[in-house]
Amino acid sequence: MSTTKIKTAQLWGKNKDDLKKQLVDLKTELAQLRTQKVAGGANSKLTKIHDLRKSVARVLTVINATQRSQLRLFYQKKKYLPLDLRPKKTRAMRRRLTKHEATIVSEKQKKRQMHFPQRKYAVKAEA
What is the residue-wise DSSP string for 5-31? Predict the structure, then answer.
């Protein structure tokens, strides 16, 4: 049973199986401490419970971050990206035309611009 806080830097080097095993160990220890607290244990258990909860969160964070990075590598060359891996931005920004779509000019508009270009006026400057 671990009683010290887990450092996140130590977790990054571990593989998925080790992280899962450590997560199970932490959760079982947390369950034991909670039962001791209900049974009337010492107040020192409260800080241990706090540390264990934070350690569980750290392990889960590392697991999720590595999983997301693997998914990013998998979908790197694909046409579509899952919604949770796309940039969040705002709803309006996501619905905005892309740069390519905004610069497209229709055939009718091309003809109109060619036959009726913007008129240029020379204005005489007075001195």
Answer: PPPHHHHTTS-HHHHHHHHHHHHHHHH
Euclidean distance between CA atoms 5 and 117, whole angstroms: 72
Q: Are 66 and 16 in contact, with CB atoms under 8 Å apart?
A: yes
pLDDT at 44: 74
Kindly state the tokens that stand for 61: 């964070």
Distances in Å between the Cα of 22 and the Cα atoms of 3, 9, 82, 106, 110 are: 13, 15, 29, 60, 65
Q: What is the rounded distance in angstroms from the CA atom of residue 39 to the CA atom of residue 50?
A: 18
- Please calculate the CA angle 97-99-103 and round it to the nearest 5 degrees: 95
Compute mean pLDDT per 10 residues along the chain, 127 residues long, and list them.
Answer: 77 94 95 87 80 95 95 94 93 96 96 94 84
Residue labelled with tokens 């909860």: 53
CB within 8 Å of 16: residues ≥ 6 apart: 63, 66
76, 22 Cβ separation under 8 angstroms: no
